[in-house]
Amino acid sequence: MPHQRYNAECVDTKVLTEHIHFRNGRVALNRLMKSPMSEKIYNWEDPHETKRGVPNAGLVNLYEKWGFGGFGIIFTGNLAIDPKHPYEAGQGIVSKENDSPVMRDWYAKMARAMKANHALAIAQLNHPGAWAFTEYTDGSGKKHIISDGADDILNAPMSVVKSELIDRVVYAAKLLSNCGFDGIEIASAFGNLFCQFLGNNNKRTDEYGGATLVTRTKFHIDMLNAIRREVPAAGGFLVGLKLNSADFQNNFTNDEVYRFCEILDEAGYDFVELTGGQMEQCVQEAQQRASTIARENYFLQFIETVAKALRKTVVYITGGWQTASGMVNAVKLNITQGVGFARAAANEPDLPRKLLSGVAHATLDNKFSPADYFTSKHAAHFQIKTMAGRSINDVVRPTDGLPDFTDEKEAKHFAEKAAEYMKFVAADGKPDTFAEVIKYTPIHS
């Protein structure tokens, strides 16, 4: 039985094939982006700071498939900049503590795999702040201590010394540039440490705190300037931000969102990735142009405000894309310049090739409940690990070996196993402290 896709009309996708030009001269070959998505397959079996979070052959296998998938730009998942404060067990780490010729060689191999078909390779950097965990369990069930939990970042994250945080970002950016990456994205979303500088809960008494928009934004400007001193824009290295609309909903007025984006644009950020809503619904409502509807949909209001404020900074939107017609209309309505896929890219690493060639007009319709976030998350992790298991030279199609979750029986079977797995990781501690991916045997492969 063939994979099932969302119902969609056939449309001309020529607008999606257009190049995206960044202010520093770099060019993405089309408008489609493989968005940041947790891989959970970096080395975490060796708990030492010098070895933890280093890439491996599986990451190269994985990014080869996305590299040949037809994306214009490809992002890594979260890369921690501080080994003592990780966001998720199994994630990558880029820091002075684990820097070595071996680590750099693996990141260089990853970058080459991402750029195999001329996509731009972007690394996402993150610091979770108080969300960081202090111990984790490896794949064999052994627990490892990361820190004693007594430091300021965990207990009072907004008291962190700004030079320490900026220095780590700059170190990672320079290292990744030397490894062949085309840029970085700083994850300033979902309440992490970078995001906390922007919110009303920022009670710092120095130049980065207070009630004014200018002071709460200053950290992001100084961070960009510090990066540019070491990795100049003239060299073509991109620097962008990831933002989530929910972080702004109770912290910024609409006018403040507009002014904040103007500041980012003036400062020189190359791109912004937005997330936080279902894009198919937003595009339909934008087409109706009914003000009463627009006021009810905060995400639509947010992304339209951002799009108007950013003049030189490129906008990508990730989340909820299903149909080629929705993507095409969003670009034509000037809502976004680029379209980002996360879990759809785990289902189908060559999705852009199919969309741009007219072979497909929608993403795959997985039969998980839309409200069941964790089941689809673990499904993506399983798909990622499956793709990492073999080189692209050893498969006929990039999707070979991936389970078909558009089959109701397969999806139901996985959901049952995922429920058992979530009970297991919950008993172990926080869900993201287990450095392994769900084990699953597909009904059909």
Automatic annotation (TrEMBL):
<dbReference type="InterPro" id="IPR013785">
    <property type="entry name" value="Aldolase_TIM"/>
</dbReference>
<keyword id="KW-0560">Oxidoreductase</keyword>
<dbReference type="Pfam" id="PF00724">
    <property type="entry name" value="Oxidored_FMN"/>
</dbReference>
<dbReference type="InterPro" id="IPR001155">
    <property type="entry name" value="OxRdtase_FMN_N"/>
</dbReference>
<protein>
    <recommendedName>
        <fullName>NADH:flavin oxidoreductase/NADH oxidase N-terminal domain-containing protein</fullName>
    </recommendedName>
</protein>
<dbReference type="GO" id="GO:0010181">
    <property type="term" value="F:FMN binding"/>
</dbReference>
<feature type="domain" description="NADH:flavin oxidoreductase/NADH oxidase N-terminal">
    <location>
        <begin position="52"/>
        <end position="359"/>
    </location>
</feature>
<dbReference type="GO" id="GO:0016491">
    <property type="term" value="F:oxidoreductase activity"/>
</dbReference>
<dbReference type="InterPro" id="IPR051799">
    <property type="entry name" value="NADH_flavin_oxidoreductase"/>
</dbReference>
<keyword id="KW-0285">Flavoprotein</keyword>
